[in-house]
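Lay summary. Proteins are chains of building blocks that fold into shapes, and those shapes determine what they do. In this project we predict the shape from the chain. Here is one chain we studied, written as its sequence of building blocks.
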Amino acid sequence: MTRSQAPLPTPFTAASTATDVLAGVDLSGRNAIVTGGHGRLGREVTRALAAAGAAVTVAARDPERASAAVDGIPGVRVERLDLADPASVDAFAARWMDSGVALHMLVNNAALMFGPQRRLDARGHELQFSTAHLGHFQLTRALLPALRAAGGARVLNVTSGAARFGEIRWDDLDFASGYDPAAAYGQAKRANVLFTVELDRRFAAEGIRSFAAHPGVIVGPGPHTGERLASLRAQGLVDEHGTPVIDPAAGKKTIEQGAATLVFGAASPLLAGVGGVYLKDSDVAPLDDEVRPLTADSIPSDANSAMLDPADARRLWDLSEKLLD
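And here is the predicted shape, written in a compact code that computers can read:
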């Protein structure tokens, strides 16, 4: 799939917003699911898709909290979904399938980040991997008939530039030994991209295309204090007052700019005929296999061959199926 991993190009830039990307795009009559579609980034994706005419279902672990967050956005409803609970995933998918409604856009957005302690889901799997990948893998497979029924559907997996550095711990996915929250996050984000590659390979001929999208680095307004503030300052993500540094060209974005690449993957007609690729800055990211260190001034986030490896993608798919049995 790396042969398709090259910019199109598009008219957008790193500073483009979700509103820019969907300008003139009519999503009337199309149905979307956004997992975690009430959080900061997810809410902007929900808002932008709904503003373009889509009927959006926000899938959230806490429906009451999610409903309050999206209150006032027309065309949005909320359903309960706990990606770390297999029964909850099955129940959500069953409700959708029972409705008989086609699914045009599935935005697998929900994730956890950098939990300080190793936590496990109901299956006994590490929670970052479970939430970002395994729960979405289960959900997507269960919704395949609804995606086929759309006659042209997209699955958008929200990943991160951390996929470039992340590695799949094939013999210890759950970090039974040597737990490191950043490594667990990187593994989950690498899994998002590999899932994208294999999903597209398997189902492109049936009209289901898949994309992985890196939104950029988005820091909330805080307040940031103590070790958190020191860490963010060391990474060049906030200034001395704790205010987020916005520099889209360096990958440091606002929520509206970060959501642009997500809605680009979910709905832009510019991606017609494309799939199984990793997106950034509202375009297909370039392929860059140079070893580039992570510094405060440079956050490498282009694609590399390792994160798109088709053999690893098939291996992860097969392993994920076994983990769900």
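What the prediction tells us: The first strand starts at residue 31 and ends at 35.
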